[in-house]
Amino acid sequence: MSVDFINQTLKNIDEKGLKRSLRDVSGKQSRRIFVDGKDVLNFCSNNYLGLADDVRLSKAAEDSLKTQGFGSGASRLVCGNLDAHRQLEKKIAQFKGSEDCLVFSTGYMANIGIISSVCTRDDIVFSDRLNHASIVDGIILSRATFTRYPHRDMDVLEKMLKEAQGYKKKLIVTDSVFSMDGDIAPLDKIVSLAKKYNALVMIDEAHSFGVLGKNGKGLAEYFGVEKEIDIQMGTLSKAAGSFGAYCCGTKEMIQFFINKARSFIYTTAMPPSVAAASIKAIEIIQSESRRRCEVLANGDRMRNALKQMGFDILDSCTPIIPVVVKEELVAIEFSKKLFDVGIFVQAIRPPAVPSGTARLRLTVMATHTKEDIDFVVEEFQRIGKELCLIL
Ligand SMILES: *Cc1c(COP(=O)(O)O)cnc(C)c1O
After folding, report:
1. Which residues 6+ apart lie within 8 Å of 31 measured at CB?
2. Which residues are annotated as catalytic?
3. For residue range 78-92, what is the model confidence (pLDDT) as tens digits?
4. What is the CATH number of domain 17-46+289-386?
5. Which residues are registered as beta bridge partners of 248?
6. Domain ranges of the chain
7. 6 CA to middle of ligand 1, Å?
8. Which tens digit of pLDDT belongs to each residue from 95-130?
């Protein structure tokens, strides 16, 4: 068979200026990183609390390696259900105040496994238009009727719920913090609509676990609606600085996923050292609330300064701060100029975001200093003026 389609597709992507390529990063995932050999300030990572390179996580993993070895050997249902997995699940359930918990190997796998087992072709799913790709893929895999409501638009969501007749189940699913916009889902309103129209609610706390809520439990805690959310999914790969994902729910729900979620059943269990590092990360999240305060304060400082200069940062209210410059080439140019002065911020372009909304996507960490933030702000002002984006 001819493989022309590969070259043809690459050529098409390249001609549109949309070719993605990998940057070489070396050293630890930290406040500063080496990108293509250059030492730069890191304003791209989801390592919000600075735990990815915390020695306590490495130590927990090392200790586990000594007693439990590296590989897990099999899927959880065969002979890979190790002590570390159940300990991690107990730890998360206790922290989140939920009845039970199930760990998946990644957030992507959690979402496709959860949604495709909860929903069938007789059901309908209501999904925020800006939800993460893994949610979209889970819905497609489920074969349920897939409806998208405009971003955070509760009037349209209500209209859709009202009009949805003849389905067995209705599921509303939303990111808690939107990964490209840094704004939050109106969970209080979603929960009351779900009650009114008898729908299930699922949230994805990928960017809020460890960051939002009084105790860092996420957006459901922030809104005080933890008991009203049926399925609470989140990841251990962002603020927790580790790898993997969880789903919290009732005991029966967890049994259901163990029996039905194919991305849980047909895959090898995570290495025990990864689970051990995650347990340590949650202990740190529980005992060091100052990290949460620091990342939120850094976000406020950065957002206020950029807004004051006249940049469009949408409705960001989290450590994710988009700076919308509209034109793709301007975003790329901006990112390059930042890199030249030692600041690493990725340009985000369509199709990752709607066309005409190309942007720089900044993420702040607890470990950034005030000087780091102020330096970035100054450079944004200088380059923003140079590119005629601000006055
Ligand atoms: C990152 C992310 C995921 C995927 O999690 P991984 O553990 O990286 O696979 C899922 N949902 C959202 C909203 C995310 O931002």
Report:
1. 41, 42, 50, 365, 367, 368, 372
2. 179, 207, 238
3. 999 999 999 999 999
4. 3.90.1150.10
5. 101, 232
6. 17-46+289-386, 55-287
7. 28
8. 999 999 999 999 999 999 999 999 999 999 999 999
